[in-house]
Amino acid sequence: MTKAIAPLSDFSGWARGNLLVIILLVLGAILLTRLADWARGQLMARIDARAADSDELVRSEAAKHRHVVAQVLTWSVLAVIYVVTAVLVVQRLGVPLAGLVAPAALISAALGFGLQRFIQDIGAGLFITGERQYGFGDVIRISVAGVGEPAIGTVEEVTLRVTRIRSVSGEVVTTPNGQIVQVTNLSRDWARAVVDVPVPSSVEVSHVTEVLRRVGREAFGDEVLRKMMLDPPTVMGVERIEVDTFSVRMVARTLPGMQFDVGRELRARVASALREEGIFVSAELDTGRSTGGAS
């Protein structure tokens, strides 16, 4: 037999009964949300500690996925806590839930277009998490529908609704998952540093190629750089011919996310080596690109 709800006119009795229960429900929800945030922090700290104890220079794909799963689960638990608490509070206020079915249907129909995008974001977030498209710490390039320039940055947070990345210059870019049309992961499995070296057309190609090969051997022999590279850098040959210059391409396969550091170091070594040989390259040496790949 259900307990009769005291009328609101009897405020004293209602305050000692239902009001006290409502306060306890709200406090319990606050404590549960704090507990969920604490558990997520502990789990992420444990993942980071394991990564720090290993000899790997980059975070493993499993660790990235665990970060994303922890964030998504925390977000889902918080949503469930809020919904359940709201339902229980409404019941204690004496509002019949059965009578709210018809108004709720009308409100849902009125908000259908707005909720459609929300559900689209949630669905896209489930696919991103389940398919491991990217994870915490990945360097990605996101193309958004209706936006010309893609956003490039490091993933800081992934929930079922949004993806938050931080660009090189420090801006935080938040993108709804449902608006993402293409993602380029620059730090998945392995990456490639590409350096195009423009040299005067009067220089022998074989001479430049030999200098670049020597730079590649010396770079791979460096203990610091060797930890970032998977293979010795290779010279691909002449990539582009112009009126007074030609470009020789040099590539190096690196650990995920390390293509930028390796590319900068290779450019500096190439510039110094060519200068010692009396070959002066143009300022376009810095246009070397860095790309990601998959094994």
Give a summary of the structure in a few sentences:
By secondary structure, this protein is an alpha+beta fold.
Please describe the topology of this protein.
Elements: H1 11-53, H2 61-92, H3 101-110, H4 112-131, E1 139-144, E2 151-158, E3 162-166, E4 172-176, E5 180-185, E6 190-200, H5 205-221, H6 223-226, E7 234-241, E8 245-254, H7 259-276, E9 290-293
Antiparallel strand pairs: 1-2, 1-5, 2-3, 3-4, 6-8, 6-9, 7-8
Structure explained in plain terms:
- With 295 residues, the chain is of the alpha+beta class.
- It has a domain at 190-293: Alpha-Beta Plaits (2-Layer Sandwich).
- It is built from 7 helices and 9 strands; from the N terminus they run H-H-H-H-E-E-E-E-E-E-H-H-E-E-H-E.
- The chain has helices at 11-53, 61-92, 101-110, 112-131, 205-221, 223-226, 259-276, and strands at 139-144, 151-158, 162-166, 172-176, 180-185, 190-200, 234-241, 245-254, 290-293.
- It has a 5-stranded antiparallel sheet. A 4-stranded antiparallel sheet has the order 7-8-6-9, covered by helices on one side.
- Helix 1 runs antiparallel to helix 2 and helix 5 packs across helix 7.
- The longest helix has 43 residues, at 11-53.
- It is elongated and about 100 Å long.
- The termini are far apart.
- The mean pLDDT is 78.
